[in-house]
Amino acid sequence: MTICKALAVAGSDTSGGAGLQADLKTFQELGVYGMTAITVIVAQNPNNDWSHDIYPLPLTALEAQLETVLGGIGVDALKTGMLATTEVISLVAKKIDQYAVKNVVIDPVMACKGTDEVLHPECTVGIREILAPRATIITPNVFEATQLSGIRSIRTVEDMKAAAAAIHKLGPKNVLIKGGAKLDTDEAIDILYDGQEFTVLRSPKFNTTYTHGAGCTYGAAITAGLAKGLPVPAAVKQAKEFITAAIQAGFPLNSYVGPTYHAAHRLNK
Ligand SMILES: Nc1ncnc2c1ncn2[C@@H]1O[C@H](COP(=O)(O)OP(=O)(O)O)[C@@H](O)[C@H]1O
Ligand SMILES: Cc1ncc(COP(=O)(O)O)c(C=O)c1O
Question: Against a cut of 0.90, is the pTM above it?
Fold first, then answer.
């Protein structure tokens, strides 16, 4: 039996629902061997309304981790999450090129859920110019899509299509815009664009705030599908089913945060 392997270049979400924890749980659920290169550690402060404190790792520590996995082992797919500086973005791009990584999923994490404030503004430029052109698929949510496309307001499916077309010009092979709860629609709609065709993905929209880590989990499920050799549309379709089940079974950890439930897809079988 061949075990497919995936690498998450991501931040550590101490509370376990997002970041590399979401990535690893999702890889495992989908039968893919997961590895990590940690960029930052995020700790949430229970004495300060769950504010997010970010502790970056030294660049040399990230490079050593990337060498371990890409130089020493090899991967079938790679996913990026929270990348705190332009130097980190440049390093990841260099390693993708050096090791000719095949399936590259860029989740352009710019903010933690609930805030529409870019955590590291210079990263937006780095993602646009350095990572987007290397992506097999880039997966912005509505806020990230406004930042990458320059389109100020995205409220409808037509707006999402316009943003997807603008982002595709940056060079990724595929763009997936996650409409999620932000769109003026009854369903949770995402748009996949390959430069020629728009595919609309729909699911019921759940009335829940327990969506911490939803974007990471969705991107990781896409990564797992690509690692196993699925074509992009099939990997996205499978991932949409996975994240829909995970959001439906989301649960509270405390009064501040509720993650999606990564094992939920098993409940429906
Ligand atoms: N309330 C919801 N009900 C159902 N699906 C949702 C809901 N919110 C988000 N989604 C879906 O979850 C996936 C991740 O989207 P989103 O939460 O916007 O990402 P991010 O965590 O990057 O902001 C997308 O497929 C989106 O459509
Ligand atoms: C390390 C890390 N990566 C990514 C995210 C983004 O999470 P989401 O998938 O909810 O957008 C977070 C949010 O807290 C995080 O802590």
Answer: yes
